[in-house]
Design a protein that fits this description.
Elements lengths: L21 H7 L7 H11 L6 H11 L9 H10 L11 H17 L2 H6 L2 H13 L13 E4 L5 H12 L4 H7 L10 E4 H15 L10 H9 L1
Antiparallel strand pairs: 1-2
Length: 227
């Protein structure tokens, strides 16, 4: 005896199923409240499975003619003006230029001092010269991938602290850029990422417990000023 689908009365392939397809099963659930166990069971079954071409066609046909959120002409104009393609070959208005300048200044002021120094063109030139000197290879393992320029033997944080002690906290960023030690090629080496983690982070590990005054490594920074 053939078992018929409870929804469309078509013959069911196996004796354990009550519906001929998932579509009929889904249609039978409309308007009915399901238990949490039933929902979870259905979700587990659907995990990792992909929709067939027939079901995809059915979904696309069901959505044909339906319109989503209709945007007004004003919002469309704003979206087009904010896109980069709209301003290609055109001059930006003064208000937009000023807005962009303020946003960049805000971003620059909120970043940490060490990061601001790394954003300067002099730092990028210094980094490139060291990479050229080391033939674009890691000094320790000879790798040519994921290269980083490390401040060695004097770390960047100690250079900043030494300038802060010598010249004061006021205009610290400008004073750091003027200091020659920041751009000394002998105080840099090319490392790969793995060697940088192995060797450089040791400094920060054993310096964590050192006594600090006003946020500076005073003992080490004072030693650097004497050299």
């Amino acid at each position: 005896m053939n078992i018929l689908c409870l929804k469309c009365n078509k013959p069911v392939n196996t004796k354990y199923n009550k519906y001929c397809s998932n579509f009929c099963y889904g249609q039978s659930l409309i308007g009915k409240k399901q238990s949490k166990k039933a929902v979870e069971k259905r979700i587990k079954k659907r995990r990792g499975s992909s929709l067939s071409l027939e079901t995809k066609k059915k979904i696309s046909e069901a959505h044909k003619g339906k319109k989503g959120h209709i945007q007004t002409k004003e919002t469309r104009k704003k979206i087009s003006e904010n896109s980069a393609k709209f301003w290609l070959g055109r001059t930006l208005p003064k208000e937009m230029v000023e807005k962009m300048r303020r946003a960049k200044l805000k971003e620059f002021s909120t970043t940490s001092l060490s990061r601001r120094i790394r954003m300067v063109s002099n730092y990028k030139k210094w980094r490139e010269l060291i990479k050229k000197r080391d033939d674009y290879k890691c000094v320790l393992c000879g790798s040519t991938q994921n290269l980083i320029v490390d401040h060695h033997p004097i770390p960047l944080c100690l250079l900043i602290d030494s300038v802060a002690i010598k010249m004061g906290e006021n205009n610290l960023f400008e004073n750091c850029l003027k200091t020659e030690k920041f751009w000394d090629l002998n105080n840099g080496r090319t490392l790969c990422q793995s060697c940088h983690i192995k060797n450089t982070y040791k400094f920060y590990r054993y310096r964590l417990d050192e006594f600090r005054v006003n946020g500076h490594f005073y003992t080490e920074a004072l030693r650097l000023l004497k050299t």
